Amino acid sequence: MLSSGKMHNYMRMYWGKRILAWFPSVEDAYGILAWLNNKYEMDGRDANGWAGIAWCFGKHDRPWAERPIYGMVRYMNAAGLKRKFDIEAYVSKWSNG
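The structure corresponding to this sequence follows.
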């Protein structure tokens, strides 16, 4: 995000979902996600950016089986990321090494 003002949408969804597990409350997770989006993404403070944040918390998505931390919000994990996205190419493209 620092280099281009954009994060690939699949990565954006993945990290947005993972933030739910890293913060003590939904409100805290939402706050940091909004702050990161508004500070670093090209669509920060744009309706599309807000819709993307809301999607991470279940808006415009069907409910899934209830689970700890996520409730009925769709869960994304690293195994699914590796199956559906070329994470190695993405990291290689954006790494400083």
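Residues 2 and 40 are 6 Å apart (CA to CA).
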